[in-house]
Model the fold of this input.
Amino acid sequence: MNPAKDTRSMFSINSYLQIHKRFGSRIEDWCDDNWTSKLRVEAGIPRFTGQERDFADFTYLDSSGQMREMLRDAEMDFHLDWFNDTTYHLEVKSTSGSGDEAFFVSQIQVDMMRRYNDDALHAYILVRVSNIENADIQLKFYLDPWNLYMNQVLDFRSEEGYRVFADD
Done:
């Protein structure tokens, strides 16, 4: 057993629970099915049976406009072309430290960011959960993170360099 891995898993589960409860309290049709990660079984929710690589941690079809309204109420810069029937893909990233601490994303997550960039039918959002060990948990939402990367708001770095592939 790896205690460091167990601690990271607990951070993730606690972060996911915070997000699940927060959205569930603000969006009427939010349900357990929106939690599209296999870790949800740790919270007593039946195991997610989809392919995780095809989903963010939470997936929500905003057929009633409640997610968009919540983003507007929180004064977030959402895309004006996101509308009812936009599917929101929420990827949760948590650390025990401050919100300034770096966090990791996988190549699959970066590919999803690029795929949904400027797509009115799909909104990809990084949900940053920090101070997870403290009572003062902090949340920050990065809407359209690929666009934020392209505009140098977010900085993606590889410690070992990038492998480059051509499409031809």
Observations:
- The longest strand covers residues 86-94.
- Residues 3-150 form one domain.
- The two ends are 45 Å apart (CA to CA).
